[in-house]
Amino acid sequence: MKILFFTGKGGVGKSTLAAAYAWQLSQKHRVLIVSLDPAHNLGDIFGVEVRGERRFSQTLLLKEVDLKKLSKAYLKREIRVLSDTYKYLQILNLDTYFAVLKYSPGIEEYALLTSIEESIKTENSFDYIVFDTPPTGLTLRFLALPQITVTWLDRLTQIRKKIIEKCYTIQNIKGPQSAGETILSYDEKDDGILQKLYSLKSNYESLNRILQGNDCSIVLVFNPDMLSLKESLRLIKGLKELKLPLRLLLHNKISPESGETMARVEKEISNVTSVPLERVSFLSDFQTNKDSVLYHIKEDLTNIIHQG
Amino acid sequence: MKLSVFDLLRNICRDIDKTHRSNVCALTVTEVEELRNIFALLLLGSFVGLPSPPSFLAVELLPYMQKELEILSKRAQNANDMFAEMFGALGVG
Q1: Burial class (CB in 10 A: 0-12, 13-18, 19+), A281
Q2: How much is the ipTM here?
Q3: What's the pLDDT tens digit per position in A233-265?
């Protein structure tokens, strides 16, 4: 299964090109297109109402991820675990105060990452998963999350192991504990925190491997304008730092008037990356031509991406 | 219940042994408590203005952190007299 992320500045046409690519690909393969952008417009592009999930054709499934719903579901699950652990607080009706966790920062990125992970691990019946991502800032943050998390997990695991090692020494010196004494977990298997750290680490490492692997591609969409260029340069730099595989550049909304700016944008981008570039022309006849649909573009994107 | 001289002697020896063993590992016990305190501080550092890991990590581990939170709160209460505790653990004075 191959995974593609369409990224770029807001408004450059990521969603339209992701939809066009998914549609072209679905002529030969089974494709799932997932919109992670909180401002969904997958339904608008395909001219249908998606509401979570909708099959567009035999080989194309559309999915819109509701980030708020996802964050809520995740926190509800965690709050339930917390309330179970601190059950005695129910006597004083204090357990409800855990609900405040839903305002924690960073939960949205985590929910987004969880949703990607879930799609990658559960949707095995597809040949391709195409992700239409939110604008640059949020995309870079959630793509960086597995690596940042693994670094933290490593450090925390180190401290935890040291604690267990010391507890083992104490246990050895003190001998069997008498009744009433607190028993410290001195075996890695008995320590809930360490076990959780291990399971989180293996999870994030496997996700990281998938994101940096050969089956994952990042497609950068940009327009012939300076703002889009600046943000694209930042994104290319960010992806390089994260060692994420940028495989194709799509120069979208090219028109006869964009000549000089287009050349300048392409020159500056080619200075920082040698990834193949394809131009997608601006279609001005959408309004007038009733038969044209947004996901129909004349350029064959699938061919280029496969070469890339 | 009346204890025989033998039982009494055995209890005394056992208590002496226990006290010695406790004294030997007192410093390690303090060290473990400090490590657990550091662990909790790193994980929940945002409460006291420290840079903290992604907040979901704290949320994931929070259900297992009861003991760590107890230590953290105890340390916060005794923070004004940490030298006394350290000297106590080292057997100074």
Answers
A1: middle
A2: 0.80
A3: 999 999 999 899 999 899 888 887 777 888 888
Instruction: Sort out which chain A residues have CB atoms less than 8 A from B61's CB and list them.
Output: 193, 196-197
CA A241 to chain centroid, in Å, comes to: 16
> For testing the chain B interface, which of A173, A197, A202 should be mutated: the one with the most B CBs within 10 Å?
A173
Token couple for A214: 């050969």
| Domain ranges within chain B, ordered by starting residue | 5-90
Instruction: Say whether pLDDT at A288 is over 60.
Output: no
Who's near B65: CB < 8 A, 6+ residues apart?
A193, B40, B43, B44
Domains of chain A, with CATH numbers?
2-307 (3.40.50.300)
* Distance between A137 CA and the closest CA of chain B, angstroms: 16
Torsion angle in degrees (nearest 10) through CA of A29, A30, A35, A41: 70
- Give the number of other CB atoms < 10 A from CB of residue A143: 23
Instruction: Please name the member of A149, A167, A175 whose beta carbon is closest to the beta carbon of B54.
Output: A149
Residue A30's alpha-carbon distances to A1, A48, A293, in angstroms, are: 10, 19, 21
Q: Which helix (H) or strand (E) holds A7?
A: strand A2-8
What dihedral do alpha carbons A140, A26, A120, A62 form, nearest 10°?
Answer: 80
How many residues are recorded in chain A? 308
Stated pTM of the model: 0.76
- Residues contacting residue A200 through CB under 8 Å, at least 6 positions apart: A149, A153, B57, B60
The count of C-alpha atoms lying within 13 angstroms of the C-alpha of A84, restricted to the half-sphere facing its C-beta, is: 8
